């Protein structure tokens, strides 16, 4: 099977028969099938849909752009502290609940975010650009030295991990093993905290930073305070794990982005000719790939949406790729158009939990795509790849390419 960022949409959303919506929580749909027809049908016919699938708790699905945006922006009614991803009830609550950046509510969230914000703002990312450029050249040269390579692991994975590890303060000599462990955890679709080597590694790193603080993010987490108190060791480790895990979205956007450009050679040529299109192309890649598949929120009080009553304690699932194909928001939403204007996608969420890595993710894309467009390398797809079998993130699990230095 040839993979595609957006497989062909053959389902007629206006058709009379409701599709089987329980498939939405089947990871195989994202690996082998096409969730977009289901979302299109839901946007048209069931924009606030209650479902109960297998081991997952019952939840409401939201698929329209405007509704998803409104929920993100009302963090008083829709809390993040009980988890932001669907988890089987048997595995219990997310261990990061109330502790990690993504899984806290105001006012704690704001304080925790301000501890980290200085590492991800425009100034910090500009200062990091030289490191990103060197990392991009290194992974491309290594990959070009081989006959064939997997863009997902050999290029995007190594690059994303190197950059976040550098920010956290992981010494260069440890990048390879950290990469191996995170790769194993992602491949097993397990949480990074369930990988004992990762937890042990960060505990060891934080003990070293306790004795000798440096200018890295681990030191900042260790010595900064939230609510007047230092973070506990487990909070520091969980936040490191949260940052590495969140980077997976950036990695998938890089892979999905290069795939989208290679599958739309006209757009690639347009971009190569006119580099002023690059910022817009990056936004379109984020809309198109929408690598974060869903966010969960838990209602803190009763509310009503399109006549449906959402009770306190109910889980609400926001399907981001659906919002980013909403025909009420985007003209010709299934077309990949690097000059799309306006392009108010919400791949990075909106509101208080807007992706803290947004500037970094854009910078990595800019540097990597610029290097590929500059003509120093020739790149082409090299056979079919696979898509990730997950309901949390989506995109190519592997993307075989032929890359050579010219
Ligand atoms: C194109 C790439 C990316 C996409 C599509 C993306 C998407 C998202 C989304 C949708 C959220 C909101 C989650 C929620 O509240 O339910 C989020 C939050 C977050 N992202 Fe990203 N992300 C990307 C890249 C990155 C990178 C490279 C990092 C690394 C630092 C990162 C770190 C985070 C963190 C820590 C949060 C939690 C922010 C908070 O709750 O205040 N993301 N991201």
From TrEMBL:
Organism of provenance: Micromonospora sediminicola
Keyword Iron among UniProt keywords: yes
UniProt cross-references to CDD domains, sorted A to Z: CYP142-like
Full protein name: Cytochrome P450
InterPro entries (UniProt xref): Cyt_P450, Cyt_P450_B, Cyt_P450_sf
Region described as Disordered: 1-23
Pathway: Antibiotic biosynthesis; mycinamicin biosynthesis
Sorted UniProt keywords: Antibiotic biosynthesis, Heme, Iron, Metal-binding, Monooxygenase, NADP, Oxidoreductase
An MF annotation (GO) of this entry: heme binding
GO biological process, one term: antibiotic biosynthetic process
Family: Belongs to the cytochrome P450 family.
